[in-house]
Every structure is written in structure tokens, then in C-alpha cells.
Write a structure and sequence with these properties.
four-stranded antiparallel β-sheet; 6 helices; 289 residues; globular; seven-stranded mixed β-sheet; Rossmann fold; alpha/beta; 13 strands
């Protein structure tokens, strides 16, 4: 155990409480009684996360029924994420440990409406309003893993939605620049990302097929909507070498494609069949109805 490892970084005077063992990530877990921060330790690595819900200090021996219920909610959420990682990602071949960590840390329920919280970790996309969806967890993990992020990259995302994929990316790279066509969703995504403490994500309301030239070039680009072809501005804003990952194909069924841009040109790799909402904008589908 590392020095100071059993103390929350937000409240160093408070000793963490042992709360179990994460069998999926082979990690020992401790919980801060002040702020619900979860710390996990595996092979000398410390990972700290917070479900995004803050609580006041209370004595567990004299805790009210409501406080105990909130604590139970924290553990239910963490366990749901562990099951999601094991049953939806690991069994399908997601192997990058950093991607598994990120998927286990980001509270997906905070990126959907309250009435959908019970389904937040289901193996499927969920509606987020404006005829858009939050992607299936496996598809987010597969897309992010294909980018082969090391931690220092600047990533452009097209199609912010409610901000969930941007939050996962934010755990894995230095900066995320995300463009959302629907202003209502862009505002919601900013609020969601702020609530979970991500300060390395910038969200712009606009035509994502044009990219975000002000911050180019990018080490990686990801498109979270179905495109009829590769939007040329995004390829131009991608650094060499770099990866662009997008669902491409017909309106109802696409293939998740990884584009590698290097000195020799452009190479395509087909990863999986998928279904995404249609990409709108100048280089998206002409039929927006």
C-alpha cells in the first residue's frame, strides 16, 4: 500500500473505509465517507473516481435511513459498472486496461435522464432527447480502444450527445474538443461533464462535419454518428500519423471503420457492424428528415 493511499485526495484528514474487492479489475476498493469518492488499488496503481453525487459528513452509526439509502446507491452504481465491464466489454474482447478503467470509472447514469437510471448500464443505447441516443457501452469502448490513446493526445469528437463518450475520452487523453449539432444537447453535455469534474473537455455547438479548425491538428478524431463517407475537413484536421474512427455505410446499418492516416496515405480497417443515428451537417446525409 502506498503512503497516504488510504486517504481521500479531497479530504486528506479522513481515513477511507474498506468497501470490497473489484474482481473485474483485480483491485481493492476504499470509500471516502465525506464525498463518496471511491479509490481502487491494483498492482501499485491508484485510481480515484466519484459517482458524481456529493454528500455531507455523517456518522454511519447514527446515519438516517435516507443517508444509508444514498450510500447503498453508490455501491449499486459501482457494482453495475463492474458488471458492465465484465459482461459487456471483457467477454467481447476489449483488452486495453486503460479503457476498462475508464469505462469502470465514468458514471453513465449521470448522462441519461433520471427515469432511465435503472437502465443506465444496460447493453444498449438509450434516448437522450432531440431524437439522439447515448451509445451502447460496448460501442463506446470499442471506438475508444481503436484510437490507441496513451494519455498525451488531443482528440476531436463529432457528436457530443449528452457527453458520456467525451467523459470516457477525457479519462484517457490530455484534451477533448467535442462538437454537437444540437445546441440543447451541447448545453446539457457541458453541465454533465462539469458535474463529474472533467475540466479537459471543451464543447462547441455547431456543424461537426467541419471539425473545429481553431484547435487543429488533432492526434485522433472520433465520429459518434453514421456518416455516408469520410468528412474531408476532419481528415485534413487529423495529424499525421493519426487515427479517425467512425461508423460508415448505409442509413440503417453501418460498419465501424478505423482510418489510419500516415505518410503512405490512408488505410481503412473494418472493426464491427453497428447502428448509429445519422450524421447531420455539410458532409453528412443530405436527407435530414
Amino acid at each position: 500500500m502506498l503512503n497516504g493511499a488510504r486517504h481521500c485526495s479531497r479530504h486528506p484528514q479522513v481515513k477511507l473505509v474498506f468497501s470490497g474487492f473489484n474482481r473485474v479489475l483485480n483491485a481493492t476498493r476504499f470509500l471516502c465517507p465525506l464525498c463518496a469518492t471511491v479509490r481502487e488499488y491494483s498492482s501499485g496503481v491508484i485510481v480515484e473516481s466519484n459517482p458524481g453525487i456529493q454528500y455531507g459528513l455523517f456518522d454511519s452509526a447514527n446515519a438516517s435511513e435516507n443517508q444509508n439509502r444514498k450510500t447503498a446507491m453508490i455501491f449499486d452504481d459501482v457494482r453495475a459498472r463492474e458488471r458492465m465491464v465484465q459482461e459487456q466489454l471483457v467477454v467481447r474482447g476489449i483488452r486495453d486496461p486503460r479503457v476498462l478503467w475508464a469505462m469502470a470509472r465514468v458514471p453513465r447514469h449521470l448522462f441519461v435522464e433520471n427515469e432511465l437510471w435503472d437502465h443506465a448500464y444496460d447493453d444498449r443505447p438509450l434516448p437522450i432527447g432531440a431524437d439522439q441516443t447515448i451509445s451502447q457501452p460496448y460501442m463506446v469502448a470499442l471506438t475508444v480502444e481503436a484510437l490507441e490513446l496513451k494519455g498525451t493526445e488531443r482528440v476531436l469528437e463529432v457528436g457530443t450527445g449528452s457527453g458520456y463518450a467525451a467523459a470516457v475520452l477525457a479519462e484517457l487523453c490530455a484534451e477533448v474538443f467535442s462538437v454537437e449539432a444540437v445546441e440543447e444537447l451541447a448545453l446539457k453535455a457541458r453541465a454533465n461533464l462539469t458535474s463529474v469534474g472533467h475540466t479537459n473537455v471543451s464543447v462547441l455547438a455547431g456543424d461537426g462535419t467541419l471539425g473545429w479548425e481553431e484547435h487543429a491538428p488533432y492526434d485522433a478524431v472520433v465520429i459518434s454518428a453514421a456518416a455516408p463517407c469520410i468528412p474531408r475537413p476532419l481528415l485534413e484536421q487529423l495529424r499525421t500519423p493519426g487515427y479517425l474512427v467512425l461508423p460508415m455505410g448505409e442509413k440503417e446499418l453501418q460498419t465501424l471503420v478505423r482510418i489510419r492516416k500516415d505518410r503512405e496515405g490512408i488505410r481503412e480497417e473494418y472493426l464491427a457492424e453497428c447502428r448509429f443515428v445519422k450524421l447531420t451537417g455539410r458532409y453528412g446525409w443530405e436527407d435530414m428528415g
